[in-house]
Structure of Precorrin-3B synthase:
Amino acid sequence: MSAPLVKGWCPGAFRPMMSGDGLVVRVRPPLGEVSATQAAGLADLAERHGSGVIEATARANLQLRGVSESAYPALIQDLRALGLLGDADSEARRNLVLDPFRAPKTDQIARGFLDGLSRTEFSALPGKFGFVVDPGTPRRLAGISGDIRIESSAEGMILRADGCATGRLLGDTDEAIALGLNLARWFLTSGGVGADGRGRMARHLDGGTALPDALSGDVDPSPAAPEPQPGRQGHGVCVAAAFGQFTSGALRALSETGGPIRVTPYRMLYLPAVTDLPDHPDLILDPQDALRRVQACTGAPGCPQATVQTRDLARRLALSVPEGQCWHVSGCAKGCAYPRFADLTLVGRDGAFDLVKQGTPWDDPIRRGLSPLEIDTEIRS
């Protein structure tokens, strides 16, 4: 079996990715938030130009699937009219994940990063290189991938390079912005980007390159918060959908609440100013819903790298997942839908499934080549 094709970049609005069901067009909302008007507009565009589904991704973005090449130019014009696109260069660098339950300083830091990253000196940053802005206590984004991290600690905000257990104490938001951008400069000038244009901070440090003293420290980040669940969160509400796929009707219903909608990296949406829970059959508001215990990617035939169907199997397995556990059905070893640890992971390979327990899709399986019918027997044993 050939390894899954790792492209080194994620689909964007100006760089869509061809999949088995058409183009995947990813929208990176500024500061991870859309207005009610923009949400309603995205619902319309999903119906007009795509499959009618809007996916929330693990990078806190939204993406439209099933877009034909002929419809793509009109979609770009419509997204620009909604105020969701800048120029192609700045859009590609808008790779920030923000705490969706955030304090005002989170937005201030994110805006500073976006302004800085618009400079040409950062144009060589790899497509998957990202920033995490998580200065609240406890940390909400501890399990979310990011190369440069602004986090909380018992002593205050810290800057932490991914791959380092500790970080440098920061004085204020201005210093967070300045040193975060300095860390990105150091990554570029110290050889963090390979000849193929790829590179990640943790891999760079693992290779033996040491951080300069000005960008490192010995302050531990604050404890991690449990992953949020659907339902009330603070003054707002989190809403989920099966496998992170929001139908156009569901997104339109959320837009009718009138408030802003934040995209979370948990493949949920957060409405920070809602008091009445939205009501729509495609929305999941119960944290105990069985579909919340299983993750699944698009699978075949929607994804050309997958050799197995995933979501029908995931729906069938959902009722078997013990409470408190998370299972993952992945079409290939890349694990795009849930690139994290799961209690049980089924990984598609040559039309069958490999079984990984207590690991990630790229870990060594304990069983190989299981058919869908053999999976039930294996799980029960």
Summary: The longest strand covers residues 342-349. The chain has three domains: 17-85+230-271, 102-215, 290-380. The chain has a mean pLDDT of 92.
